[in-house]
Protein backbone atom coordinates (compact mmCIF):
# COMPACT_ATOMS: atom_id res chain seq x y z
CA UNK A 1 0.00 0.00 0.00
CA UNK A 2 1.48 3.31 -1.04
CA UNK A 3 0.27 6.69 0.12
CA UNK A 4 -2.68 5.17 2.00
CA UNK A 5 -4.36 3.87 -1.12
CA UNK A 6 -5.18 0.38 -2.35
CA UNK A 7 -3.60 -0.20 -5.76
CA UNK A 8 -3.24 -3.11 -8.15
CA UNK A 9 -0.10 -4.38 -6.40
CA UNK A 10 -2.03 -4.77 -3.12
CA UNK A 11 -4.87 -6.93 -4.40
CA UNK A 12 -3.27 -10.36 -4.09
CA UNK A 13 -1.88 -9.73 -0.60
CA UNK A 14 -5.19 -8.27 0.55
CA UNK A 15 -7.03 -11.32 -0.78
CA UNK A 16 -4.69 -13.71 1.03
CA UNK A 17 -5.15 -11.89 4.33
CA UNK A 18 -8.88 -11.74 3.78
CA UNK A 19 -9.12 -15.52 3.39
CA UNK A 20 -7.14 -16.04 6.62
CA UNK A 21 -9.52 -13.71 8.49
CA UNK A 22 -12.49 -15.26 6.68
CA UNK A 23 -11.83 -18.57 8.51
CA UNK A 24 -13.33 -20.50 5.62
CA UNK A 25 -16.21 -18.10 4.98
CA UNK A 26 -16.74 -14.72 3.40
CA UNK A 27 -16.68 -16.18 -0.10
CA UNK A 28 -13.83 -17.05 -2.42
CA UNK A 29 -12.15 -13.73 -3.28
CA UNK A 30 -11.47 -14.68 -6.91
CA UNK A 31 -14.44 -12.77 -8.33
CA UNK A 32 -13.85 -9.84 -5.99
CA UNK A 33 -10.20 -9.66 -7.09
CA UNK A 34 -11.31 -9.31 -10.71
CA UNK A 35 -13.90 -6.67 -9.77
CA UNK A 36 -11.37 -4.69 -7.74
CA UNK A 37 -8.67 -4.89 -10.42
CA UNK A 38 -11.09 -3.63 -13.07
CA UNK A 39 -12.29 -0.83 -10.81
CA UNK A 40 -8.76 0.32 -9.99
CA UNK A 41 -7.71 0.17 -13.64
CA UNK A 42 -10.72 2.32 -14.56
CA UNK A 43 -10.87 4.75 -11.62
CA UNK A 44 -7.41 4.58 -10.04
CA UNK A 45 -6.20 3.50 -6.58
CA UNK A 46 -8.74 3.71 -3.77
CA UNK A 47 -7.90 6.01 -0.84
CA UNK A 48 -7.88 4.17 2.48
CA UNK A 49 -8.84 6.56 5.27
CA UNK A 50 -9.21 6.54 9.03
CA UNK A 51 -12.71 7.23 10.27
CA UNK A 52 -11.27 9.74 12.75
CA UNK A 53 -10.00 11.85 9.84
CA UNK A 54 -13.45 12.23 8.25
CA UNK A 55 -16.23 14.66 9.09
CA UNK A 56 -17.52 13.22 12.41
CA UNK A 57 -21.10 13.60 11.19
CA UNK A 58 -20.38 12.15 7.74
CA UNK A 59 -22.46 9.11 6.74
CA UNK A 60 -20.57 5.88 6.11
CA UNK A 61 -21.91 3.31 3.66
CA UNK A 62 -21.23 -0.23 4.93
CA UNK A 63 -21.65 -2.95 2.31
CA UNK A 64 -21.20 -6.71 2.05
CA UNK A 65 -22.27 -9.75 0.11
CA UNK A 66 -24.47 -12.10 2.14
CA UNK A 67 -25.51 -15.69 1.63
CA UNK A 68 -23.79 -19.05 1.23
CA UNK A 69 -20.11 -18.90 0.17
CA UNK A 70 -20.50 -22.09 -1.84
CA UNK A 71 -23.04 -20.31 -4.08
CA UNK A 72 -20.79 -17.32 -4.81
CA UNK A 73 -18.44 -19.59 -6.76
CA UNK A 74 -21.13 -20.11 -9.40
CA UNK A 75 -23.38 -17.06 -9.07
CA UNK A 76 -21.70 -13.70 -9.59
CA UNK A 77 -23.00 -10.20 -8.77
CA UNK A 78 -24.07 -8.17 -11.82
CA UNK A 79 -22.37 -4.99 -10.60
CA UNK A 80 -25.49 -2.94 -9.97
CA UNK A 81 -26.55 -4.34 -6.60
CA UNK A 82 -24.19 -2.24 -4.48
CA UNK A 83 -25.26 0.98 -6.18
CA UNK A 84 -28.89 0.05 -5.57
CA UNK A 85 -28.53 -0.67 -1.86
CA UNK A 86 -26.24 2.27 -1.08
CA UNK A 87 -28.22 4.87 -3.01
CA UNK A 88 -31.39 3.59 -1.34
CA UNK A 89 -29.70 3.90 2.04
CA UNK A 90 -28.70 7.49 1.27
CA UNK A 91 -32.25 8.27 0.19
CA UNK A 92 -33.74 6.87 3.38
CA UNK A 93 -31.18 8.68 5.53
CA UNK A 94 -31.52 11.92 3.59
CA UNK A 95 -27.76 12.32 3.32
CA UNK A 96 -24.86 11.50 1.03
CA UNK A 97 -22.19 9.01 2.08
CA UNK A 98 -18.62 10.20 2.60
CA UNK A 99 -16.95 6.78 2.48
CA UNK A 100 -17.63 3.08 1.96
CA UNK A 101 -16.97 0.64 4.82
CA UNK A 102 -16.49 -3.15 4.82
CA UNK A 103 -18.86 -4.83 7.27
CA UNK A 104 -16.37 -7.67 7.65
CA UNK A 105 -12.76 -8.30 6.65
CA UNK A 106 -13.09 -11.87 5.49
CA UNK A 107 -13.00 -13.45 2.04
CA UNK A 108 -14.48 -11.43 -0.80
CA UNK A 109 -16.17 -9.07 1.65
CA UNK A 110 -12.82 -7.37 2.19
CA UNK A 111 -12.21 -6.59 -1.50
CA UNK A 112 -15.78 -6.07 -2.70
CA UNK A 113 -16.41 -2.84 -0.72
CA UNK A 114 -13.15 -1.35 -2.01
CA UNK A 115 -14.28 -2.00 -5.58
CA UNK A 116 -17.59 -0.35 -4.75
CA UNK A 117 -15.76 2.65 -3.31
CA UNK A 118 -13.76 3.01 -6.53
CA UNK A 119 -16.91 2.95 -8.63
CA UNK A 120 -18.62 5.55 -6.43
CA UNK A 121 -15.57 7.81 -6.32
CA UNK A 122 -15.37 7.53 -2.52
CA UNK A 123 -12.61 6.48 -0.14
CA UNK A 124 -12.81 3.25 1.85
CA UNK A 125 -12.62 3.35 5.63
CA UNK A 126 -9.83 1.28 7.18
CA UNK A 127 -12.24 -0.47 9.54
CA UNK A 128 -14.81 -3.23 9.87
CA UNK A 129 -17.25 -4.48 12.48
CA UNK A 130 -15.58 -7.68 13.71
CA UNK A 131 -11.98 -8.21 12.37
CA UNK A 132 -12.97 -11.57 10.90
CA UNK A 133 -16.01 -13.08 9.19
CA UNK A 134 -19.12 -14.36 10.96
CA UNK A 135 -22.16 -16.05 9.42
CA UNK A 136 -24.85 -14.00 11.18
CA UNK A 137 -25.38 -10.30 10.62
CA UNK A 138 -25.94 -9.41 14.27
CA UNK A 139 -22.56 -10.93 15.25
CA UNK A 140 -20.62 -7.68 15.27
CA UNK A 141 -18.87 -5.54 17.85
CA UNK A 142 -21.28 -2.81 16.78
CA UNK A 143 -24.17 -4.86 18.16
CA UNK A 144 -22.32 -5.14 21.47
CA UNK A 145 -22.10 -1.34 21.60
CA UNK A 146 -25.75 -0.78 20.76
CA UNK A 147 -25.38 0.27 17.11
CA UNK A 148 -28.43 -0.74 15.08
CA UNK A 149 -28.01 -2.74 11.88
CA UNK A 150 -31.12 -0.99 10.53
CA UNK A 151 -32.10 0.45 8.21
CA UNK A 152 -30.92 -2.41 6.00
CA UNK A 153 -31.15 -2.62 2.22
CA UNK A 154 -30.78 -5.77 0.13
CA UNK A 155 -30.61 -6.38 -3.63
CA UNK A 156 -30.11 -9.42 -5.86
CA UNK A 157 -28.76 -10.01 -9.37
CA UNK A 158 -32.25 -9.74 -10.90
CA UNK A 159 -32.86 -6.23 -9.63
CA UNK A 160 -35.10 -7.15 -6.71
CA UNK A 161 -34.65 -4.79 -3.77
CA UNK A 162 -35.94 -4.75 -0.19
CA UNK A 163 -35.66 -2.35 2.74
CA UNK A 164 -35.90 -3.35 6.41
CA UNK A 165 -36.19 -1.41 9.62
CA UNK A 166 -35.92 -4.16 12.21
CA UNK A 167 -36.57 -3.67 15.93
CA UNK A 168 -33.28 -5.35 16.84
CA UNK A 169 -30.23 -6.78 15.09
CA UNK A 170 -31.16 -10.42 15.66
CA UNK A 171 -34.50 -9.83 13.92
CA UNK A 172 -32.68 -8.07 11.11
CA UNK A 173 -30.59 -11.21 10.59
CA UNK A 174 -33.72 -13.36 10.35
CA UNK A 175 -35.32 -11.03 7.81
CA UNK A 176 -32.19 -10.87 5.67
CA UNK A 177 -31.67 -14.63 5.80
CA UNK A 178 -35.25 -15.30 4.71
CA UNK A 179 -34.90 -12.91 1.77
CA UNK A 180 -31.49 -14.27 0.76
CA UNK A 181 -32.96 -17.77 0.55
CA UNK A 182 -35.54 -16.42 -1.92
CA UNK A 183 -32.91 -14.45 -3.82
CA UNK A 184 -30.96 -17.56 -4.78
CA UNK A 185 -28.73 -17.72 -1.69
CA UNK A 186 -26.69 -14.62 -2.55
CA UNK A 187 -27.36 -10.88 -2.37
CA UNK A 188 -25.68 -7.54 -1.67
CA UNK A 189 -26.53 -5.82 1.60
CA UNK A 190 -25.97 -2.51 3.31
CA UNK A 191 -26.43 -2.42 7.08
CA UNK A 192 -25.16 -0.61 10.17
CA UNK A 193 -25.32 2.89 8.66
CA UNK A 194 -23.33 5.12 11.00
CA UNK A 195 -21.38 8.31 11.23
CA UNK A 196 -17.62 8.51 11.00
CA UNK A 197 -17.53 9.38 14.71
CA UNK A 198 -19.46 6.21 15.57
CA UNK A 199 -17.10 4.16 13.43
CA UNK A 200 -14.03 5.66 15.09
CA UNK A 201 -15.46 4.83 18.50
CA UNK A 202 -17.13 1.44 18.01
CA UNK A 203 -15.70 -0.36 14.95
CA UNK A 204 -12.42 -2.25 14.60
CA UNK A 205 -10.23 0.45 13.13
CA UNK A 206 -7.18 -0.54 11.08
CA UNK A 207 -8.65 -3.91 10.09
CA UNK A 208 -8.15 -3.53 6.32
CA UNK A 209 -4.48 -2.74 6.89
CA UNK A 210 -4.32 -5.72 9.26
CA UNK A 211 -5.65 -8.01 6.51
CA UNK A 212 -3.11 -6.60 4.06
CA UNK A 213 -0.22 -7.18 6.46
CA UNK A 214 -1.33 -10.77 7.09
CA UNK A 215 -1.51 -11.32 3.34
CA UNK A 216 2.02 -10.04 2.83
CA UNK A 217 3.26 -12.62 5.31
CA UNK A 218 1.27 -15.42 3.68
CA UNK A 219 2.73 -14.33 0.34
CA UNK A 220 6.21 -14.70 1.82
CA UNK A 221 5.32 -18.27 2.87
CA UNK A 222 4.19 -19.06 -0.66
CA UNK A 223 7.46 -17.68 -2.04
CA UNK A 224 9.43 -19.94 0.28
CA UNK A 225 11.19 -17.15 2.17
CA UNK A 226 13.16 -18.44 5.19
CA UNK A 227 11.35 -17.95 8.49
CA UNK A 228 8.18 -16.77 6.78
CA UNK A 229 5.87 -19.20 8.58
CA UNK A 230 7.19 -18.22 12.00
CA UNK A 231 6.82 -14.54 11.06
CA UNK A 232 3.22 -15.14 9.99
CA UNK A 233 2.34 -16.98 13.22
CA UNK A 234 4.07 -14.36 15.37
CA UNK A 235 2.33 -11.44 13.64
CA UNK A 236 -1.09 -13.10 14.04
CA UNK A 237 -0.32 -14.38 17.57
CA UNK A 238 -1.40 -17.71 16.08
CA UNK A 239 -0.48 -21.37 16.57
CA UNK A 240 -0.67 -24.57 14.54
CA UNK A 241 -3.22 -26.76 16.32
CA UNK A 242 -3.05 -29.78 14.02
CA UNK A 243 -1.44 -30.92 10.77
CA UNK A 244 -3.29 -33.57 8.84
CA UNK A 245 -4.78 -34.96 5.64
CA UNK A 246 -8.44 -34.47 4.76
CA UNK A 247 -10.25 -37.78 5.21
CA UNK A 248 -13.85 -36.67 4.88
CA UNK A 249 -15.90 -33.60 3.95
CA UNK A 250 -19.61 -33.21 4.63
CA UNK A 251 -21.02 -30.03 3.14
CA UNK A 252 -24.49 -28.75 2.26
CA UNK A 253 -26.23 -25.43 1.72
CA UNK A 254 -29.36 -24.75 3.74
CA UNK A 255 -31.24 -21.72 5.12
CA UNK A 256 -28.77 -19.35 3.49
CA UNK A 257 -25.65 -20.97 4.99
CA UNK A 258 -23.01 -23.49 4.00
CA UNK A 259 -22.93 -26.06 6.80
CA UNK A 260 -20.79 -29.13 7.29
CA UNK A 261 -17.66 -30.69 8.74
CA UNK A 262 -14.16 -31.53 7.58
CA UNK A 263 -12.26 -34.42 9.17
CA UNK A 264 -8.46 -34.70 9.14
CA UNK A 265 -6.06 -37.50 10.06
CA UNK A 266 -2.77 -36.41 11.64
CA UNK A 267 0.20 -36.81 9.31
CA UNK A 268 2.55 -38.21 11.97
CA UNK A 269 0.10 -40.14 14.14
CA UNK A 270 -2.84 -41.68 12.30
CA UNK A 271 -4.61 -42.38 15.61
CA UNK A 272 -5.14 -38.63 16.01
CA UNK A 273 -8.19 -37.16 14.23
CA UNK A 274 -9.50 -33.61 14.08
CA UNK A 275 -13.00 -32.50 13.09
CA UNK A 276 -13.76 -28.90 12.18
CA UNK A 277 -17.40 -27.83 12.27
CA UNK A 278 -18.52 -25.26 9.69
CA UNK A 279 -21.35 -22.74 9.35
CA UNK A 280 -19.99 -20.61 6.49
CA UNK A 281 -16.97 -20.08 8.78
CA UNK A 282 -14.97 -22.66 10.74
CA UNK A 283 -16.59 -22.70 14.17
CA UNK A 284 -14.93 -25.32 16.38
CA UNK A 285 -11.93 -27.63 16.03
CA UNK A 286 -12.18 -30.90 17.96
CA UNK A 287 -9.30 -33.36 18.33
CA UNK A 288 -10.67 -36.77 19.28
CA UNK A 289 -13.80 -35.03 20.56
CA UNK A 290 -11.91 -32.48 22.67
CA UNK A 291 -12.26 -28.81 21.59
CA UNK A 292 -8.92 -27.12 20.88
CA UNK A 293 -10.36 -23.91 19.42
CA UNK A 294 -13.81 -22.36 19.40
CA UNK A 295 -15.51 -19.24 18.10
CA UNK A 296 -15.03 -16.34 18.43
CA UNK A 297 -11.32 -17.23 17.99
CA UNK A 298 -10.34 -17.80 14.37
CA UNK A 299 -9.73 -21.24 12.85
CA UNK A 300 -8.03 -21.16 9.45
CA UNK A 301 -7.02 -24.13 7.29
CA UNK A 302 -3.86 -23.65 5.23
CA UNK A 303 -2.33 -25.99 2.63
CA UNK A 304 1.05 -27.10 3.95
CA UNK A 305 2.59 -27.45 0.47
CA UNK A 306 1.34 -24.29 -1.23
CA UNK A 307 0.62 -21.97 1.70
CA UNK A 308 -2.88 -21.32 0.33
CA UNK A 309 -5.48 -20.49 3.00
CA UNK A 310 -8.62 -22.48 2.27
CA UNK A 311 -12.20 -21.35 1.89
CA UNK A 312 -15.00 -23.79 2.75
CA UNK A 313 -15.86 -24.39 -0.90
CA UNK A 314 -12.22 -25.09 -1.88
CA UNK A 315 -11.69 -27.98 0.56
CA UNK A 316 -10.97 -31.34 -1.08
CA UNK A 317 -10.18 -34.92 -0.15
CA UNK A 318 -6.52 -35.69 0.43
CA UNK A 319 -5.43 -32.10 1.01
CA UNK A 320 -2.65 -31.76 3.58
CA UNK A 321 -3.51 -28.86 5.84
CA UNK A 322 -2.36 -26.96 8.89
CA UNK A 323 -5.23 -26.09 11.24
CA UNK A 324 -4.27 -22.70 12.58
CA UNK A 325 -5.81 -21.04 15.62
CA UNK A 326 -5.70 -17.24 15.93
CA UNK A 327 -7.05 -15.13 18.79
CA UNK A 328 -10.11 -12.98 18.16
CA UNK A 329 -10.24 -9.26 18.80
CA UNK A 330 -10.15 -8.89 22.62
CA UNK A 331 -13.64 -7.36 22.69
CA UNK A 332 -15.05 -10.73 21.67
CA UNK A 333 -13.52 -12.46 24.70
CA UNK A 334 -15.85 -10.73 27.14
CA UNK A 335 -19.09 -12.06 28.68
CA UNK A 336 -21.35 -10.21 26.21
CA UNK A 337 -19.04 -10.95 23.27
CA UNK A 338 -19.10 -14.67 24.04
CA UNK A 339 -22.86 -14.60 24.55
CA UNK A 340 -23.26 -13.13 21.05
CA UNK A 341 -20.69 -15.21 19.14
CA UNK A 342 -19.36 -17.96 21.39
CA UNK A 343 -20.10 -21.69 20.98
CA UNK A 344 -23.47 -21.54 22.74
CA UNK A 345 -24.66 -18.88 20.28
CA UNK A 346 -24.26 -21.55 17.57
CA UNK A 347 -26.17 -24.21 19.51
CA UNK A 348 -23.26 -26.03 21.15
CA UNK A 349 -23.50 -27.19 24.77
CA UNK A 350 -19.99 -25.91 25.24
CA UNK A 351 -18.30 -22.91 26.79
CA UNK A 352 -15.57 -20.93 25.05
CA UNK A 353 -12.20 -22.68 25.11
CA UNK A 354 -9.02 -20.57 24.85
CA UNK A 355 -6.76 -21.65 22.00
CA UNK A 356 -5.30 -25.07 22.75
CA UNK A 357 -6.65 -24.84 26.27
CA UNK A 358 -8.53 -28.14 26.32
CA UNK A 359 -5.55 -30.34 25.45
List the helices and strands and how they pair.
Elements: E1 5-6, H1 11-22, H2 30-43, E2 46-49, E3 59-67, H3 69-72, H4 81-93, E4 97-102, H5 108-120, E5 124-125, E6 127-128, H6 141-144, E7 152-155, E8 161-164, H7 169-182, E9 186-190, E10 194-195, H8 196-202, E11 204-205, H9 207-222, H10 228-236, E12 239-254, E13 257-266, E14 273-279, E15 281-287, E16 290-294, E17 298-303, E18 320-326, H11 335-341
Parallel strand pairs: 2-5, 3-4
Antiparallel strand pairs: 1-2, 3-9, 3-10, 6-11, 7-8, 7-9, 12-13, 12-18, 13-14, 14-15, 15-16, 17-18
Helix pairs in contact: 1-5, 1-9, 2-5, 9-10
Write up this protein:
There is one protein chain. The chain is α+β, with helices and mostly antiparallel strands and 359 residues long. It has two domains: 204 residues, CV3147-like fold (3-Layer(aba) Sandwich), CATH 3.40.1610.10; 110 residues, CV3147-like, CATH 2.40.390.10. It has eleven helices and 18 strands. The strands form four sheets. The chain has a seven-stranded antiparallel β-sheet. Strands 3, 4, 7, 8, 9 and 10 form a six-stranded mixed β-sheet that branches. A hairpin with a 1-residue loop joins strand 14 and strand 15. The mean pLDDT is 91.
Amino acid sequence: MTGRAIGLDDIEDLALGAVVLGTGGGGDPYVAKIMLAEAIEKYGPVPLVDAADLDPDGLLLPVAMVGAPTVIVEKFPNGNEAHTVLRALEEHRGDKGVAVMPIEVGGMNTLFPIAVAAELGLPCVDADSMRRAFPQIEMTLLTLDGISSSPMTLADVKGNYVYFDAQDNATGEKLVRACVAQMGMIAVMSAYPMTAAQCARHAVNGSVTFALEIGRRVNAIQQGKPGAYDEFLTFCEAQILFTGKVLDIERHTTAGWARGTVTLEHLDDRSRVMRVDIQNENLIAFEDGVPLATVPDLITLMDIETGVPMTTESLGFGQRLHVIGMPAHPRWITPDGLALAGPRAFGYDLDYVPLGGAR
